[in-house]
Amino acid sequence: MILCIDQAISPELLSRVRATLAETDFRDGRETAGWHARTVKQNEQADGRQPEIAELRQEVVKELQANPLFQMAARPRRMKPLMFSRYQEGMTYGNHVDDAIMATPQGAMRTDLSFTLFINDPDSYDGGELLVDSTAGEQTYKLPAGALILYPSSTLHRVEPVTRGERLAVVGWVQSQVRDPQQREILFDLDTTRRQEFESNGKTRTFDMLSKSLANLIRMWAEI
Fold this sequence. Notes:
Blueprint: E1 3-5, H1 11-23, E2 26-28, E3 41-42, E4 44-46, H2 51-65, H3 68-74, E5 76-79, E6 83-87, E7 92-96, E8 101-104, E9 107-110, E10 113-118, E11 126-127, E12 130-134, E13 137-141, E14 148-152, E15 156-159, E16 162-164, E17 167-176, H4 181-201, H5 205-221
Antiparallel strand pairs: 1-14, 2-4, 3-7, 4-6, 5-17, 6-17, 7-15, 8-9, 10-14, 10-17, 11-16, 12-13, 12-15
Helix pairs in contact: 1-2, 4-5
InterPro entries: Oxoglu/Fe-dep_dioxygenase_dom (IPR005123), PKHD_hydroxylase (IPR023550), Pro_4_hyd_alph (IPR006620), Pro_4_hyd_alph_FE2OG_OXY (IPR044862)
Binding site for Fe cation: 96, 98, 157
Domain Fe2OG dioxygenase: 77-176
């Protein structure tokens, strides 16, 4: 399942991210790539050792944790520390698949889901589309500022060359409480349906039965 979420973070936080990135130091993005990805990765990343970047990471994660759609779709168990990336003219990131295991301060984690949070307006740069190679073929995404795309880490994907301006984004990875992508999609659909039932009719017998089924499936499938 590939999910696009509008306004994944607040406009206030989005403005702070932009302002901070305008003043921060960036490093060669190949420093954080695997040995094979280094051959196709041409971008820059904000220096994560800077206190202001560490603070931004926490703020973005906090808002994502409060976002119902993100939580319903990803059901995060662990998250890799976020990266703030910049693509200037001529920069690109060729076809690659994200590492299956990534290091975190708390130890190694499995990557089930990847996400890109777009920071600047799509009209401010040309190129820079995220292209995801799925069973439906290649699909391109260039979302409004503040919007997020969540997709399986198992997919081949790339960032097309930027031909004008600069592309700013936050990228991250999630180890889900539910490893199987089909099970995550079932839970997402069921949770969506029960919320729609509540919005339309309140706490009905149907809502209660949907809630019971959702809870019991989570008990069956979750890894805690």
